[in-house]
Amino acid sequence: MLHLENIAGETLEMHPWGGLFWRSRGMLLLSDLHLGKVTHFRKYGAAVPLKALKRNFSRLQQLQEVFRPETICFLGDLFHSHLNREWDFFESWAGACSARLELVVGNHDIIDPVRFEALGIRLHESWQTGPFELTHHPMESPGRFNIAGHLHPAVRLAGSGRQRLRLPVFYLREKQLILPAFGAFTGMHVVSPQPGERVFALTPEAVLPLETPNTADG
Amino acid sequence: MKAAKDRHQKWTEQATAWFHGQGWIPFPFQVQTWEAFLDGKHGLLNAPTGSGKTYALWFPILLQYMKEHPGFRTKHRKGLKAVWITPLRALSQEIHQSAQRILQDLDIPFEVGIRTGDTSTAQRAKQRKAMPDLLITTPESLQLLLATKGYAKTFASCTAVVVDEWHELLGSKRGVQMELALSRLKSVCPQLRIWGISATIGNLEQARQVLLGPGSEALENSVMIRAHVPKRIVVKSLLPERMDTFPWRGHLGLHMLESIIPIIEASKTTLIFTNTRGQCEIWFQKLLERHPELAGEIAMHHGSIDKETRLWVEQAIRNESLKAVVCTSSLDLGVDFAPVETVIQIGGPKGVARFLQRAGRSGHRPGKESVIYFLPTHAIELVEAAALQQAVKLQAVEDRTPYLGSFDVLVQYLTTLAVSDGFHPETIYREVCQTFCYQALSQEQWEWLLNFLVLGSQSLQSYDEYRKVEVEADGLLKVTNRGVAMRHRFQIGTIVGDAQLTVKYQKGGYIGTIEEYFISKLKAGDVFTFAGRNLEFIRIRDMVALVRNSSQKAGKTPSWMGGRLTLSSEMSRILREELYSAAMPEEQQAEEIRALQPLFERQRLESIVPGPDQLLLETFKTREGHHHIFYPFEGRFVHEAMASLLSYRISLLTPITFSLAYNDYGFELLSDQPLDVRMVLDNDLFSPEYLLDDLQKSLNATEMARRKFRDIAVISGLVFSGYPNKGVKMKHLQSSSQLLFEVFRDYEPDNLLFQQAFTETFEHQLEEGRLRLALERIQGQEIVWKACTKPTPFSFPIITDRLREKLSSEKLADRIKRMTRILTGG
Fold first, then answer.
1. To probe the interface with B, which of A3, A32, A37, A43 has the most B CB atoms within 10 Å?
2. What pLDDT was estimated at residue B119?
């Protein structure tokens, strides 16, 4: 189930897998796929299940069918490390993809830009489009609303009976939205939302808005 | 034996003469060991610390050599003759000294070397070129030797391996490492004799089997020698003066601090044993705070303090220059301290064997009795005190359960062999199958393991870049990639859990090591107590935590894991009996139980003190939620399994979420909803039927296996822990074992290493056999349900325990809706 949220005058749709769809532009935003991570580990002798790398591509495929995006924009850390054979999978996916592809470069993206450009992918340090500035690292964008990744945000929840949960979230701040990591085998970073900020948790079936603290001490 | 005696007399006489020269008489067990060894036997020697066990085995090793090499004084043959394995590198100095003494006095031109994690690179390189005649090392360093080229040649001349403190290794994966190393050495050393030395444990016969291999020739040709060194142990409980102010929970015991002062004053040297390093730090601090006159007279000793300081403390004990030392299990083993007169144990030792060993640290002189004082940290621990008295009388020592089928250690071992000279699978399979741990290893599992090493447990895929072990033309499995080999060498020996950080002053100066887990919770400016100092945390740089001295009072003390051991079934039985005696006339009660009367009265206000025919269930509500507490008094592990089983069975009947806690007396199911107790009682949820199946399923529902997987991932090389103290960052290759667990669960659940996390929890932690017996006992009991208005004295230690397990049968979204708050501050 999608969650719709009006942000900077635009309607943005949050998907339980961590994708964000900007319908009026037909743009699907995805962050921190860390493609190639499974292969990278295997290359160094850690036998991470090979099947894990397929999830990224099958989810990409499915989201395309759900949203039919004109543009897919990756908010950085598309590739985990150096070039490896997972690139071949990406290349054939990109070749067959009807949407225009954009990449806002992240700290892990060390692959030669020429390779991306050869696939028709446009590269950005940051990208100002509509009311938004899209970046990898969350940052202040004077006069604009920042959408970013990098953080792999998650929150810890507590309830009666000593219950505890940790869930990946979309993290909405005053002038900023931080996307959860889309990639398999990527991990999370727990954030502490401040008063006035909001978070939307990913669960298998739905994106759920959570109550956030009213006071600073939570 | 008579014949052996005559045959070897010529040689054993030399040893006896040496003893006489020292003014000693050899114990019968020493002579027996000499003779058995010279007779070509393997064996297990059961002897306590401080009984002269090193002389029982160094002598025959040397005598055998003298016998076979008549010209040994003039014609010295280079090469390794014997290996002595010790679980603690701190003990290697002592072993070295005792060997050196004999060599000198018998005029044997042998060199003794030590090779542990502390040995310098230069020294190691020198040893690689020319091994010392006698080598003292640890199980990890022995594995590292198997990872060096040409190891078979290095070991070919070795005639004996002695595994010291075998009981310490037995129940751990380091023990499995030892089994594997011995299986290899048996093949490469044709003259090898294998000997173990063990303190008294419940399963000594099994210990011998594990050491030598079940059904092996070595076991056939082996002996068990027991040193019957008579020793009287007196246990004295320190009772609180007033029971009404004595706490119901807690593990520090500080309120009774004053009661040990007269004990310290009355004896020459006292060892004060605590259960954790954190507790050790606090006690040391508080003793000095309240008794400044003790400054300079007391010291602290635990595993995280730097080696120099530890050695200094050990020496000071021998010199009798200290009145007392606050310590942890770091002083359990080895090192003889004759001057120690008194031992104090703070809090339940959770093991009779350990308690006896600690008691044995005092009164070393022959004929002297050992006195140990037990200081309870909370009220119910007095029951444990009474039970300990009984257990010591009955010598009810527990078993050390050896591991079975540890695929992680085997993967590590096979990689080790592939790194050095490579291996032929058929040869190694035959050897491995003869060990205790892998006696049931099937051909199919073996093939899986080989495929894991060569293809990363996949079928061959053109796009796969997996690289570890390669198959050479003649079928030899070998690591050819230098990076793989280097990372593997660093990985050997990381069997112990959490990553360790070095603690240093910013200006320089090493203080000790500390678990990353603790440091990761500190912010710059936080003050914590460590090594008896108040330190302000500055930052972490390259695996080093930088600190400066602080005059502020410390806010935090590292809480090290550990101390979460369980009572044996025998000890649990004794504990139950002590508790049942609460209903008996006073004169039939132990003094500890009598002292507890006020507590029992409080307990009886709303509940009962259960008798042998009753299983008590208490329910009450607090701010935390609805508490449901069961008291089977079966020991922690059984309660862990029972809590898991029961909560799983309940969760099948109704969607519910539980937080589980347990101790040695009972377990708690905590929930945000009240439990329908009638439902629990009517549905026969304690039934031993379908036990195995339900228990297995409950494991999937809790996170126990997830935690086990952590070690498995590190040992098998799935998680690379980085280069300790080298400052080399391998960030690209770091991932949490949690993440990895999920990936395996979702994509490769039939992976043997993933499966191992479950079988290990099942066999090693949950102890299905004991659980079944406990459930059968409960079948004959009446369940007494007491709905209380507030926590009872019995419930207190359980409900305040923070180490918890969880289990839920609710939908995630439903749970989230009831969650009340987002935690801030990480």
1. A43
2. 81
DSSP B402: P
Q: Does A48 touch chain B (CB under 8 A)?
A: yes
The model's pLDDT over B167-211, given as tens digits with 9 standing for 90+, comes to 989 988 899 999 999 999 999 999 999 999 998 888 999 999 999
The span from the CA of B95 to the CA of B100, in Å, is 9
Tell me whether residues B751 and A48 touch, CB distance under 8 A.
no
Q: How many CA atoms lie within 13 A of B556 on its CB side?
A: 16
Q: What is the mean pLDDT of residues B287-291?
A: 94
Beta partners for residue B299, in sequence order: B325
- How much of chain B exceeds pLDDT 90, in percent? 49
Residue among A161, A204, A205 minimizing CB distance to B625? A161
Q: Does domain A3-208 have CATH number 3.60.21?
A: yes
Two structure tokens written together for B352: 């009779």
More confident residue, B520 or A18: A18
Chain A residue with Cα closest to B736: A187
**Chain A CB contacts of B733 below 8 Å:** 40-41, 44, 46
**Tens-digit pLDDT profile for residues B505-556:** 888 777 777 766 566 667 778 887 777 778 888 876 655 778 888 877 656 6
pLDDT digits 0-9 by tens, B623-649: 999 999 999 999 888 898 999 999 999
CATH topology of domain B407-491: Arc Repressor Mutant, subunit A (1.10.10)
List of chain B residues whose C-beta atoms are within 8 Å of the C-beta of residue A92: none
Which superfamily is assigned to B233-394 in CATH?
P-loop containing nucleotide triphosphate hydrolases (3.40.50.300)
pLDDT > 90: percent of chain A: 73
B822/A210 CB distance under 8 A = yes
* Contacting residues of A for B671, CB less than 8 Å apart: 161
d(CA B743, CA B753): 13
- Counting one residue from chain A and one from chain B, the pairs whose CB atoms sit within 8 A come to 163
Question: Which position has the token pair 């039927």?
Answer: B689
Question: What are the distances in angstroms from CA B252 to CA B90, B291, B342, B530?
Answer: 27, 18, 20, 16
Chain-chain contact of B467 with A43 (C-beta, under 8 angstroms): yes
Residue B785 CB neighbour total at 10 angstroms: 15
Residue ranges of the domains in chain A?
A: 3-208
Q: Residue B648: which region, alpha, beta or left (left: phi > 0; alpha: psi -120 to 50)?
A: alpha
Q: Give the chain B residue whose CA is nearest to the CA of A193.
A: B824
What confidence tier does B278 reach under pLDDT thresholds 50, 70, 90?
Answer: confident
Residue tagged 């349900």 (tokens) = B785
Higher-confidence position of B86 and B558: B86
Judge: B670–A161 Cβ closer than 8 Å, yes or no.
Answer: yes
CATH code linked to domain B2-226: 3.40.50.300
Cβ-in-10-Å burial (0-12, 13-18, 19+) of B126 comes to: middle
Across the interface, whether the CB atoms of A156 and B823 are under 8 A apart is answered yes
ipTM: 0.88
Chain B hits for A164, Cβ within 8 Å: 806
Min distance B586 CA to chain A CA atoms (Å): 40
Does A44 contact B720 at a Cβ distance shorter than 8 Å? yes
